[in-house]
Amino acid sequence: MIQVAIFTGGRSPIMSKKIKSKAEIALKKIISKEDIAQIKIQKISRKLAKEIIPNQFERKKCLKSIMNDSHIDQLIKDGHIKEAEKQSREIIKKWK
User: Structure pTM?
Assistant: First the structure.
């Protein structure tokens, strides 16, 4: 799930709604299935990273490395989401 918020500083709530609607239409065209899969993997990874990596800065670095991992990207593109999740868990476990 991806949410978009548009705020006009209270000047025009009705225009905020109109612009949000336009933005959502545009974003649906550019957000891919791979992006959605990466969000799911990040959700799972973040939960595990919080359990294993106590330092917030290190967790952030770890999660970025998962997001930018070319092997995980390829697994997602090939439709192997469970394998991508497994690979992300391995990265987290080795992060210590």
Answer: 0.82
Full DSSP string of 52-72: H---HHHHHHHHHHHHT-HHH
Model confidence pLDDT, tens digit, residues 2-38: 888 999 999 999 999 999 999 999 999 999 999 999 9
Contacts of 47 (CB under 8 A, 6+ apart): none
Q: Look at residues 64, 84, 66, 65 and name the one whose alpha carbon lies nearest to residue 74.
A: 84
The span from the CA of 61 to the CA of 44, in Å, is: 16
Cα 26 to Cα 36: distance, rounded to the nearest angstrom: 16
Q: How far is 70 from 68, CA to CA, in rounded Å?
A: 6
- What is the C-alpha separation between 73 and 49, in angstroms, rounded? 19
